[in-house]
Amino acid sequence: MTQAMPKPVNADPAADADERPVVLEVSGLSKSFGSNTVLRDINLKVHKAETVCLLGPSGSGKSTLLRCMNWLEEPDGGTVLLAGQRIGVRPGGNVRMTDRDLAAVRTRIGMVFQHFALWPHMTVLQNVMEAPVHVLKRNKAEARREAEALLQRVGLADKMDAFPAKLSGGQKQRVGIARSLAIKPDVMLFDEPTSALDPELVGEVLSVMKDLAREGMTMVVVTHEMSFARDVASRVVFMDNGQIVETGSPERFFVAPETERARQFLMRYAARGH
Amino acid sequence: MGEFAIVWEHRGMIMDGFESTLIIVALAAIGSLALGTLLTIPLMSRHRVVAAFATGYVDAMRCVPFLLFVYLIYFGLPTLGVRFDNWSAGVTALILYNAGYMAELLRASWKNLPKETIEAGHAFGFSGWGLFRRIILPPVLFAALPLIGNQLIQIVKDSAFLTIIAVAELTHEATSLQTTYFVPFASFFAAVVLYWVTCIVIESTVGFANRYAEVRR
User: Fold this and answer.
1) Rounded to an integer, what distance in angstroms lies between the CA atom of residue B214 and that of residue B217?
2) Among B106, B118, B116, CA closest to B142
3) How many residue contacts between A and B have a Cβ separation below 8 Å?
4) A22: buried, middle or exposed (CB in 10 Å: 19+, 13-18, 0-12)?
5) What's the whole-number average pLDDT of chain A?
6) Torsion of CA A10, A79, A135, B134, to 10 degrees
Protein backbone atom coordinates (compact mmCIF):
# COMPACT_ATOMS: atom_id res chain seq x y z
CA MET A 1 0.00 0.00 0.00
CA THR A 2 3.01 2.30 -0.26
CA GLN A 3 2.62 5.28 -2.53
CA ALA A 4 6.09 5.39 -4.10
CA MET A 5 6.67 1.98 -5.61
CA PRO A 6 10.29 0.94 -6.18
CA LYS A 7 11.09 -0.12 -9.69
CA PRO A 8 9.73 -3.64 -9.98
CA VAL A 9 12.37 -6.33 -10.29
CA ASN A 10 10.29 -8.21 -12.82
CA ALA A 11 9.62 -5.31 -15.18
CA ASP A 12 8.62 -6.34 -18.65
CA PRO A 13 9.74 -3.96 -21.40
CA ALA A 14 7.53 -5.73 -23.94
CA ALA A 15 4.44 -5.12 -21.81
CA ASP A 16 5.38 -1.53 -21.09
CA ALA A 17 5.76 -0.87 -24.80
CA ASP A 18 2.27 -2.23 -25.51
CA GLU A 19 0.12 0.79 -26.30
CA ARG A 20 -3.26 -0.83 -25.90
CA PRO A 21 -5.10 0.29 -22.77
CA VAL A 22 -4.28 -1.59 -19.57
CA VAL A 23 -7.30 -3.59 -18.40
CA LEU A 24 -5.84 -5.16 -15.31
CA GLU A 25 -2.84 -3.98 -13.37
CA VAL A 26 -1.31 -5.74 -10.40
CA SER A 27 1.33 -3.83 -8.42
CA GLY A 28 3.50 -4.93 -5.52
CA LEU A 29 1.09 -7.71 -4.68
CA SER A 30 1.91 -10.02 -1.79
CA LYS A 31 0.03 -12.81 -0.08
CA SER A 32 0.77 -15.22 2.73
CA PHE A 33 -1.16 -18.09 4.20
CA GLY A 34 0.01 -18.07 7.80
CA SER A 35 3.79 -18.21 7.74
CA ASN A 36 3.81 -19.45 4.16
CA THR A 37 4.46 -16.63 1.67
CA VAL A 38 2.81 -17.59 -1.61
CA LEU A 39 3.17 -14.32 -3.53
CA ARG A 40 5.83 -11.65 -3.19
CA ASP A 41 5.96 -8.31 -4.99
CA ILE A 42 4.01 -9.30 -8.08
CA ASN A 43 3.79 -6.68 -10.84
CA LEU A 44 1.80 -7.43 -13.92
CA LYS A 45 -0.10 -5.48 -16.57
CA VAL A 46 -2.70 -7.05 -18.81
CA HIS A 47 -3.58 -5.03 -21.89
CA LYS A 48 -6.83 -5.10 -23.79
CA ALA A 49 -7.22 -8.14 -26.07
CA GLU A 50 -4.12 -9.81 -24.63
CA THR A 51 -4.01 -13.47 -23.64
CA VAL A 52 -1.58 -13.76 -20.76
CA CYS A 53 -0.68 -17.30 -19.73
CA LEU A 54 0.59 -17.85 -16.21
CA LEU A 55 2.93 -20.83 -16.19
CA GLY A 56 4.97 -22.43 -13.47
CA PRO A 57 5.32 -25.49 -11.29
CA SER A 58 2.57 -26.49 -8.86
CA GLY A 59 2.64 -24.34 -5.78
CA SER A 60 4.34 -21.46 -7.56
CA GLY A 61 1.43 -19.14 -6.73
CA LYS A 62 -0.22 -18.87 -10.16
CA SER A 63 -3.72 -19.74 -9.02
CA THR A 64 -3.44 -17.58 -5.93
CA LEU A 65 -2.39 -14.65 -8.10
CA LEU A 66 -5.36 -15.23 -10.39
CA ARG A 67 -7.71 -15.42 -7.41
CA CYS A 68 -6.28 -12.17 -6.03
CA MET A 69 -7.22 -10.47 -9.29
CA ASN A 70 -10.94 -10.64 -8.47
CA TRP A 71 -10.31 -10.57 -4.75
CA LEU A 72 -11.57 -14.14 -4.14
CA GLU A 73 -8.31 -14.23 -2.22
CA GLU A 74 -7.54 -11.03 -0.35
CA PRO A 75 -3.97 -9.90 -0.93
CA ASP A 76 -1.93 -8.80 2.09
CA GLY A 77 -0.30 -5.94 0.23
CA GLY A 78 -0.18 -4.23 -3.12
CA THR A 79 -2.95 -3.17 -5.43
CA VAL A 80 -5.13 -4.56 -8.18
CA LEU A 81 -6.56 -2.06 -10.66
CA LEU A 82 -9.34 -2.86 -13.09
CA ALA A 83 -9.38 -0.24 -15.86
CA GLY A 84 -7.61 2.07 -13.43
CA GLN A 85 -10.05 1.51 -10.58
CA ARG A 86 -8.78 -0.05 -7.38
CA ILE A 87 -10.39 -3.38 -6.49
CA GLY A 88 -11.18 -4.53 -2.97
CA VAL A 89 -10.28 -1.28 -1.24
CA ARG A 90 -12.33 1.90 -1.11
CA PRO A 91 -11.03 4.87 -3.07
CA GLY A 92 -8.48 6.94 -1.22
CA GLY A 93 -7.98 4.64 1.71
CA ASN A 94 -7.10 1.29 3.05
CA VAL A 95 -10.62 0.38 4.11
CA ARG A 96 -12.00 -2.77 2.55
CA MET A 97 -14.87 -2.34 0.09
CA THR A 98 -18.30 -3.43 1.24
CA ASP A 99 -19.30 -6.89 0.02
CA ARG A 100 -21.86 -5.23 -2.22
CA ASP A 101 -19.32 -2.91 -3.90
CA LEU A 102 -16.88 -5.74 -4.32
CA ALA A 103 -19.62 -7.83 -5.90
CA ALA A 104 -20.35 -5.02 -8.35
CA VAL A 105 -16.70 -4.87 -9.43
CA ARG A 106 -16.61 -8.63 -9.84
CA THR A 107 -19.37 -8.51 -12.44
CA ARG A 108 -16.79 -6.97 -14.77
CA ILE A 109 -14.44 -9.94 -14.37
CA GLY A 110 -15.37 -13.38 -15.69
CA MET A 111 -13.99 -16.49 -14.06
CA VAL A 112 -13.66 -20.06 -15.23
CA PHE A 113 -12.90 -22.59 -12.51
CA GLN A 114 -10.79 -25.70 -12.51
CA HIS A 115 -13.68 -27.85 -11.28
CA PHE A 116 -16.27 -25.93 -13.33
CA ALA A 117 -18.25 -24.76 -10.28
CA LEU A 118 -21.51 -24.71 -12.17
CA TRP A 119 -24.58 -24.26 -10.04
CA PRO A 120 -25.96 -27.80 -9.88
CA HIS A 121 -29.58 -26.85 -9.21
CA MET A 122 -29.90 -24.88 -12.46
CA THR A 123 -30.09 -26.02 -16.04
CA VAL A 124 -27.31 -25.12 -18.43
CA LEU A 125 -29.34 -22.19 -19.75
CA GLN A 126 -30.19 -21.00 -16.23
CA ASN A 127 -26.53 -21.14 -15.25
CA VAL A 128 -25.66 -18.82 -18.10
CA MET A 129 -28.62 -16.45 -17.48
CA GLU A 130 -28.28 -16.34 -13.71
CA ALA A 131 -25.81 -13.48 -13.21
CA PRO A 132 -27.13 -11.32 -16.08
CA VAL A 133 -30.70 -11.56 -14.76
CA HIS A 134 -30.23 -11.67 -11.00
CA VAL A 135 -27.08 -9.62 -10.52
CA LEU A 136 -26.97 -7.28 -13.49
CA LYS A 137 -30.79 -7.05 -13.60
CA ARG A 138 -30.91 -7.32 -17.36
CA ASN A 139 -34.13 -7.98 -19.16
CA LYS A 140 -34.91 -11.66 -18.87
CA ALA A 141 -36.01 -12.33 -22.44
CA GLU A 142 -32.96 -10.54 -23.77
CA ALA A 143 -30.65 -12.39 -21.37
CA ARG A 144 -32.20 -15.62 -22.54
CA ARG A 145 -31.57 -14.82 -26.19
CA GLU A 146 -27.97 -13.92 -25.43
CA ALA A 147 -27.47 -17.03 -23.34
CA GLU A 148 -28.84 -19.20 -26.14
CA ALA A 149 -26.50 -17.54 -28.61
CA LEU A 150 -23.53 -18.09 -26.30
CA LEU A 151 -24.38 -21.75 -25.82
CA GLN A 152 -24.67 -22.10 -29.56
CA ARG A 153 -21.23 -20.55 -29.86
CA VAL A 154 -19.65 -23.07 -27.46
CA GLY A 155 -21.45 -25.90 -29.23
CA LEU A 156 -24.03 -26.74 -26.56
CA ALA A 157 -27.27 -25.61 -28.17
CA ASP A 158 -28.71 -29.10 -27.65
CA LYS A 159 -27.86 -29.20 -23.93
CA MET A 160 -29.57 -26.02 -22.80
CA ASP A 161 -32.18 -27.74 -20.65
CA ALA A 162 -29.84 -30.36 -19.21
CA PHE A 163 -28.58 -30.16 -15.64
CA PRO A 164 -24.83 -29.99 -15.05
CA ALA A 165 -24.82 -33.47 -13.48
CA LYS A 166 -25.69 -34.91 -16.89
CA LEU A 167 -22.77 -33.31 -18.75
CA SER A 168 -19.23 -34.46 -19.48
CA GLY A 169 -16.36 -32.45 -18.04
CA GLY A 170 -15.65 -30.80 -21.36
CA GLN A 171 -19.28 -29.79 -21.74
CA LYS A 172 -19.37 -28.45 -18.19
CA GLN A 173 -16.33 -26.32 -18.81
CA ARG A 174 -17.80 -24.92 -22.01
CA VAL A 175 -20.90 -23.96 -20.02
CA GLY A 176 -18.52 -22.34 -17.53
CA ILE A 177 -17.03 -20.28 -20.32
CA ALA A 178 -20.47 -19.30 -21.67
CA ARG A 179 -21.54 -18.31 -18.15
CA SER A 180 -18.51 -16.10 -17.91
CA LEU A 181 -19.07 -14.52 -21.32
CA ALA A 182 -22.68 -13.76 -20.43
CA ILE A 183 -21.71 -10.97 -18.05
CA LYS A 184 -19.73 -9.32 -20.88
CA PRO A 185 -16.60 -9.03 -18.76
CA ASP A 186 -13.67 -6.67 -19.32
CA VAL A 187 -11.34 -9.56 -18.62
CA MET A 188 -11.71 -13.31 -18.14
CA LEU A 189 -9.73 -15.32 -15.62
CA PHE A 190 -9.15 -19.02 -16.29
CA ASP A 191 -7.97 -21.12 -13.35
CA GLU A 192 -6.49 -24.30 -14.84
CA PRO A 193 -9.58 -24.78 -17.00
CA THR A 194 -8.50 -28.14 -18.43
CA SER A 195 -6.72 -29.71 -15.45
CA ALA A 196 -9.75 -31.65 -14.27
CA LEU A 197 -10.62 -32.99 -17.72
CA ASP A 198 -9.98 -36.36 -19.28
CA PRO A 199 -7.28 -35.93 -21.94
CA GLU A 200 -9.68 -36.51 -24.83
CA LEU A 201 -11.92 -33.64 -23.63
CA VAL A 202 -9.19 -31.03 -23.30
CA GLY A 203 -9.23 -30.11 -27.00
CA GLU A 204 -12.86 -28.98 -27.16
CA VAL A 205 -12.31 -26.52 -24.30
CA LEU A 206 -9.02 -25.19 -25.62
CA SER A 207 -10.50 -24.61 -29.05
CA VAL A 208 -13.25 -22.44 -27.54
CA MET A 209 -10.60 -20.49 -25.64
CA LYS A 210 -8.54 -20.12 -28.80
CA ASP A 211 -11.52 -18.61 -30.60
CA LEU A 212 -12.06 -16.16 -27.74
CA ALA A 213 -8.45 -15.07 -27.85
CA ARG A 214 -8.65 -14.57 -31.60
CA GLU A 215 -11.82 -12.51 -31.22
CA GLY A 216 -10.03 -10.13 -28.90
CA MET A 217 -11.19 -11.17 -25.42
CA THR A 218 -8.78 -10.11 -22.68
CA MET A 219 -7.73 -13.26 -20.89
CA VAL A 220 -5.51 -14.37 -18.04
CA VAL A 221 -5.01 -18.12 -18.12
CA VAL A 222 -3.37 -20.31 -15.51
CA THR A 223 -2.51 -23.48 -17.39
CA HIS A 224 -0.28 -26.48 -17.72
CA GLU A 225 -1.08 -26.80 -21.41
CA MET A 226 2.22 -25.72 -22.92
CA SER A 227 1.06 -26.08 -26.50
CA PHE A 228 -1.89 -23.78 -25.79
CA ALA A 229 0.42 -21.17 -24.26
CA ARG A 230 2.81 -21.46 -27.19
CA ASP A 231 0.08 -21.12 -29.83
CA VAL A 232 -2.34 -18.68 -28.22
CA ALA A 233 -0.63 -16.56 -25.58
CA SER A 234 0.33 -13.03 -26.48
CA ARG A 235 2.56 -13.10 -23.43
CA VAL A 236 3.81 -15.77 -21.09
CA VAL A 237 4.43 -15.11 -17.41
CA PHE A 238 6.57 -17.72 -15.69
CA MET A 239 6.25 -17.97 -11.93
CA ASP A 240 8.22 -19.92 -9.39
CA ASN A 241 8.18 -19.80 -5.64
CA GLY A 242 5.69 -16.94 -5.43
CA GLN A 243 7.53 -14.62 -7.80
CA ILE A 244 7.40 -13.72 -11.44
CA VAL A 245 10.68 -15.08 -12.71
CA GLU A 246 10.40 -14.30 -16.36
CA THR A 247 7.92 -12.81 -18.77
CA GLY A 248 7.94 -12.40 -22.50
CA SER A 249 6.53 -13.53 -25.81
CA PRO A 250 5.84 -17.25 -26.15
CA GLU A 251 8.22 -17.40 -29.13
CA ARG A 252 11.08 -16.24 -26.94
CA PHE A 253 10.06 -18.06 -23.77
CA PHE A 254 9.65 -21.49 -25.27
CA VAL A 255 12.66 -21.32 -27.57
CA ALA A 256 15.17 -19.39 -25.53
CA PRO A 257 14.11 -18.88 -21.90
CA GLU A 258 16.27 -16.37 -20.08
CA THR A 259 16.44 -17.98 -16.68
CA GLU A 260 17.74 -21.31 -15.49
CA ARG A 261 14.51 -21.98 -13.57
CA ALA A 262 12.41 -21.54 -16.70
CA ARG A 263 14.76 -23.78 -18.66
CA GLN A 264 14.45 -26.55 -16.06
CA PHE A 265 10.68 -26.17 -15.95
CA LEU A 266 10.40 -26.49 -19.73
CA MET A 267 12.74 -29.48 -19.77
CA ARG A 268 10.61 -31.28 -17.21
CA TYR A 269 7.56 -30.72 -19.42
CA ALA A 270 9.37 -31.84 -22.54
CA ALA A 271 10.43 -35.01 -20.73
CA ARG A 272 6.80 -35.70 -19.82
CA GLY A 273 5.85 -35.44 -23.46
CA HIS A 274 3.70 -32.31 -23.26
CA MET B 1 -64.81 -56.77 17.91
CA GLY B 2 -67.24 -54.57 19.84
CA GLU B 3 -64.42 -52.17 20.67
CA PHE B 4 -63.77 -51.37 17.03
CA ALA B 5 -67.50 -50.92 16.37
CA ILE B 6 -67.59 -48.28 19.12
CA VAL B 7 -64.58 -46.49 17.66
CA TRP B 8 -66.17 -46.62 14.21
CA GLU B 9 -69.37 -45.18 15.62
CA HIS B 10 -67.40 -42.27 17.10
CA ARG B 11 -65.00 -41.96 14.20
CA GLY B 12 -65.89 -38.27 13.92
CA MET B 13 -63.97 -37.62 17.13
CA ILE B 14 -60.90 -39.47 15.89
CA MET B 15 -61.06 -37.75 12.52
CA ASP B 16 -61.35 -34.32 14.15
CA GLY B 17 -58.24 -35.12 16.13
CA PHE B 18 -56.53 -36.37 12.99
CA GLU B 19 -57.39 -33.18 11.17
CA SER B 20 -55.94 -31.11 14.02
CA THR B 21 -52.79 -33.20 13.96
CA LEU B 22 -52.40 -32.63 10.22
CA ILE B 23 -52.83 -28.88 10.61
CA ILE B 24 -50.42 -28.73 13.54
CA VAL B 25 -47.85 -30.82 11.69
CA ALA B 26 -48.16 -28.71 8.53
CA LEU B 27 -47.73 -25.45 10.45
CA ALA B 28 -44.85 -26.84 12.48
CA ALA B 29 -43.16 -28.26 9.39
CA ILE B 30 -43.32 -25.00 7.45
CA GLY B 31 -42.46 -22.89 10.48
CA SER B 32 -39.52 -24.99 11.65
CA LEU B 33 -38.08 -25.34 8.16
CA ALA B 34 -38.33 -21.59 7.57
CA LEU B 35 -36.89 -20.70 10.98
CA GLY B 36 -34.25 -23.40 10.70
CA THR B 37 -33.24 -22.07 7.29
CA LEU B 38 -32.85 -18.54 8.65
CA LEU B 39 -30.90 -19.89 11.62
CA THR B 40 -28.28 -21.41 9.34
CA ILE B 41 -27.14 -17.91 8.39
CA PRO B 42 -25.91 -17.00 11.91
CA LEU B 43 -24.77 -20.62 12.40
CA MET B 44 -22.42 -20.26 9.41
CA SER B 45 -21.46 -16.68 10.24
CA ARG B 46 -17.81 -15.64 10.17
CA HIS B 47 -18.49 -13.60 13.30
CA ARG B 48 -17.73 -15.91 16.20
CA VAL B 49 -20.11 -14.27 18.65
CA VAL B 50 -23.04 -14.50 16.24
CA ALA B 51 -22.25 -18.13 15.46
CA ALA B 52 -21.89 -18.91 19.17
CA PHE B 53 -25.36 -17.54 19.94
CA ALA B 54 -26.96 -19.56 17.15
CA THR B 55 -25.07 -22.70 18.17
CA GLY B 56 -26.19 -22.11 21.75
CA TYR B 57 -29.82 -22.04 20.64
CA VAL B 58 -29.49 -25.18 18.55
CA ASP B 59 -27.72 -27.07 21.34
CA ALA B 60 -30.33 -25.96 23.87
CA MET B 61 -33.16 -27.30 21.69
CA ARG B 62 -31.37 -30.56 21.07
CA CYS B 63 -30.72 -31.17 24.76
CA VAL B 64 -34.13 -30.33 26.24
CA PRO B 65 -36.75 -33.09 26.37
CA PHE B 66 -39.65 -31.93 24.21
CA LEU B 67 -42.20 -32.62 26.92
CA LEU B 68 -40.38 -30.33 29.32
CA PHE B 69 -40.08 -27.68 26.63
CA VAL B 70 -43.85 -27.72 26.09
CA TYR B 71 -44.38 -27.30 29.84
CA LEU B 72 -41.96 -24.40 29.81
CA ILE B 73 -43.76 -22.61 26.98
CA TYR B 74 -47.30 -23.24 28.19
CA PHE B 75 -46.97 -23.08 31.96
CA GLY B 76 -43.66 -21.28 32.39
CA LEU B 77 -43.91 -18.31 30.06
CA PRO B 78 -47.19 -16.97 31.49
CA THR B 79 -45.35 -16.26 34.76
CA LEU B 80 -43.18 -13.91 32.68
CA GLY B 81 -46.29 -12.31 31.24
CA VAL B 82 -46.29 -14.18 27.91
CA ARG B 83 -49.64 -15.89 27.57
CA PHE B 84 -50.65 -18.41 24.91
CA ASP B 85 -53.72 -20.48 24.31
CA ASN B 86 -52.86 -24.18 24.24
CA TRP B 87 -52.97 -24.42 20.43
CA SER B 88 -50.56 -21.54 19.83
CA ALA B 89 -48.32 -22.73 22.64
CA GLY B 90 -48.19 -26.20 21.13
CA VAL B 91 -47.43 -25.06 17.59
CA THR B 92 -44.87 -22.52 18.84
CA ALA B 93 -43.14 -25.19 20.90
CA LEU B 94 -43.01 -27.55 17.90
CA ILE B 95 -41.60 -24.83 15.64
CA LEU B 96 -38.96 -23.54 18.08
CA TYR B 97 -37.87 -27.03 19.05
CA ASN B 98 -37.65 -28.55 15.58
CA ALA B 99 -36.09 -25.42 14.05
CA GLY B 100 -33.00 -26.28 16.07
CA TYR B 101 -32.80 -29.69 14.42
CA MET B 102 -33.60 -28.32 10.97
CA ALA B 103 -30.91 -25.65 11.34
CA GLU B 104 -28.35 -28.21 12.39
CA LEU B 105 -29.00 -30.57 9.49
CA LEU B 106 -29.07 -27.71 6.98
CA ARG B 107 -25.83 -26.38 8.42
CA ALA B 108 -24.19 -29.76 7.86
CA SER B 109 -25.47 -29.84 4.29
CA TRP B 110 -24.21 -26.28 3.69
CA LYS B 111 -20.78 -27.22 5.05
CA ASN B 112 -20.61 -30.10 2.60
CA LEU B 113 -21.39 -27.99 -0.45
CA PRO B 114 -18.44 -27.83 -2.83
CA LYS B 115 -16.54 -24.65 -1.96
CA GLU B 116 -16.22 -23.65 -5.61
CA THR B 117 -20.00 -23.52 -6.14
CA ILE B 118 -20.28 -20.73 -3.59
CA GLU B 119 -17.08 -19.10 -4.81
CA ALA B 120 -18.56 -18.95 -8.28
CA GLY B 121 -21.47 -17.07 -6.74
CA HIS B 122 -19.05 -14.52 -5.29
CA ALA B 123 -17.08 -14.34 -8.53
CA PHE B 124 -20.21 -13.53 -10.54
CA GLY B 125 -21.26 -10.72 -8.28
CA PHE B 126 -23.63 -12.33 -5.78
CA SER B 127 -23.43 -11.22 -2.17
CA GLY B 128 -25.50 -11.22 0.98
CA TRP B 129 -29.10 -12.38 0.80
CA GLY B 130 -29.01 -12.90 -2.99
CA LEU B 131 -26.05 -15.25 -2.64
CA PHE B 132 -27.83 -17.21 0.08
CA ARG B 133 -31.20 -17.32 -1.60
CA ARG B 134 -30.12 -18.15 -5.18
CA ILE B 135 -26.77 -19.94 -4.93
CA ILE B 136 -26.49 -21.54 -1.48
CA LEU B 137 -29.98 -22.43 -0.28
CA PRO B 138 -31.33 -24.53 -3.20
CA PRO B 139 -28.47 -27.05 -3.27
CA VAL B 140 -28.48 -27.12 0.54
CA LEU B 141 -32.18 -28.05 0.56
CA PHE B 142 -31.77 -30.60 -2.22
CA ALA B 143 -28.90 -32.28 -0.44
CA ALA B 144 -30.68 -32.27 2.91
CA LEU B 145 -33.99 -33.60 1.60
CA PRO B 146 -33.83 -37.11 3.12
CA LEU B 147 -32.85 -35.67 6.50
CA ILE B 148 -35.63 -33.08 6.30
CA GLY B 149 -38.02 -35.99 5.66
CA ASN B 150 -36.82 -37.70 8.84
CA GLN B 151 -37.33 -34.54 10.82
CA LEU B 152 -40.88 -34.14 9.49
CA ILE B 153 -41.67 -37.60 10.84
CA GLN B 154 -40.17 -36.54 14.16
CA ILE B 155 -42.55 -33.57 14.14
CA VAL B 156 -45.50 -35.91 13.62
CA LYS B 157 -44.48 -37.91 16.65
CA ASP B 158 -43.66 -34.86 18.77
CA SER B 159 -47.12 -33.48 18.04
CA ALA B 160 -48.63 -36.28 20.14
CA PHE B 161 -47.03 -34.75 23.24
CA LEU B 162 -49.33 -31.77 22.89
CA THR B 163 -52.05 -33.89 24.50
CA ILE B 164 -50.53 -32.92 27.86
CA ILE B 165 -51.58 -29.31 27.32
CA ALA B 166 -54.99 -30.48 26.09
CA VAL B 167 -54.59 -29.67 22.43
CA ALA B 168 -57.35 -31.67 20.75
CA GLU B 169 -55.05 -33.55 18.41
CA LEU B 170 -55.17 -37.22 17.48
CA THR B 171 -53.60 -38.71 20.60
CA HIS B 172 -55.74 -36.49 22.80
CA GLU B 173 -58.95 -37.50 21.03
CA ALA B 174 -58.04 -41.19 21.11
CA THR B 175 -57.41 -40.89 24.83
CA SER B 176 -60.70 -39.21 25.54
CA LEU B 177 -62.53 -41.77 23.38
CA GLN B 178 -61.06 -44.64 25.34
CA THR B 179 -61.74 -43.07 28.75
CA THR B 180 -65.33 -42.34 27.80
CA TYR B 181 -66.17 -45.74 26.30
CA PHE B 182 -63.44 -47.97 27.80
CA VAL B 183 -62.10 -49.03 24.39
CA PRO B 184 -58.33 -48.57 24.91
CA PHE B 185 -57.06 -51.05 22.33
CA ALA B 186 -59.30 -50.05 19.44
CA SER B 187 -59.01 -46.29 19.93
CA PHE B 188 -55.23 -46.30 20.37
CA PHE B 189 -54.87 -48.73 17.50
CA ALA B 190 -56.90 -46.42 15.25
CA ALA B 191 -54.66 -43.52 16.22
CA VAL B 192 -51.52 -45.54 15.55
CA VAL B 193 -52.78 -46.46 12.08
CA LEU B 194 -53.48 -42.82 11.26
CA TYR B 195 -50.00 -41.75 12.44
CA TRP B 196 -48.58 -44.52 10.33
CA VAL B 197 -50.53 -43.38 7.26
CA THR B 198 -49.28 -39.83 7.82
CA CYS B 199 -45.70 -40.98 7.92
CA ILE B 200 -46.11 -43.09 4.79
CA VAL B 201 -47.49 -40.08 2.94
CA ILE B 202 -44.55 -37.96 4.13
CA GLU B 203 -42.04 -40.62 3.18
CA SER B 204 -43.41 -41.13 -0.30
CA THR B 205 -43.66 -37.38 -0.89
CA VAL B 206 -40.03 -36.97 0.16
CA GLY B 207 -39.11 -39.91 -2.03
CA PHE B 208 -40.82 -38.28 -4.98
CA ALA B 209 -39.15 -34.93 -4.28
CA ASN B 210 -35.86 -36.75 -3.96
CA ARG B 211 -36.11 -37.97 -7.52
CA TYR B 212 -36.67 -34.37 -8.60
CA ALA B 213 -33.66 -33.30 -6.54
CA GLU B 214 -31.39 -36.10 -7.71
CA VAL B 215 -30.54 -34.56 -11.06
CA ARG B 216 -30.10 -31.13 -9.48
CA ARG B 217 -27.35 -32.17 -7.06
Assistant:
1) 6
2) B106
3) 77
4) middle
5) 92
6) 90
B178 close to B3: Cβ distance less than 8 angstroms: no
In this structure, are residues B129 and B66 in contact, taking their beta carbons and an 8 Å threshold? no
Q: Could you tell me which residues of chain B have a Cβ less than 8 Å from any Cβ in chain A?
A: 114, 116-117, 119-128, 130, 134-135, 138-139, 142, 215-217
Closest CA to B140 of B121, B125, B162, B118: B118
CB of A102 less than 8 A from some CB of B: yes
- pLDDT at residue A218 above 60? yes
| Residue pair B14/B187 in contact by the 8 Å Cβ criterion | yes
Contact B88, B167 (CB under 8 A): no
Helices (H), chain A: 13-17, 62-69, 99-106, 124-134, 140-153, 169-182, 199-214, 226-232, 250-255, 260-271
Is there a contact between B124 and A130 if contact means CB atoms under 8 Å apart?
A: yes
Tell whether ipTM is more than 0.85.
Answer: yes
Q: Which residues from B are below 8 Å from A72, CB to CB?
A: 119, 122-123
Its pTM stands at 0.90
Nearest CA to B93 out of B17, B8, B162, B182 is that of: B162
pLDDT digits (tens, 9 = 90+) for B196-213: 999 999 999 999 999 999
Q: What is the pLDDT of residues A35-86, one digit of tens each?
A: 999 999 999 999 999 999 999 999 999 999 999 999 999 999 999 999 999 9
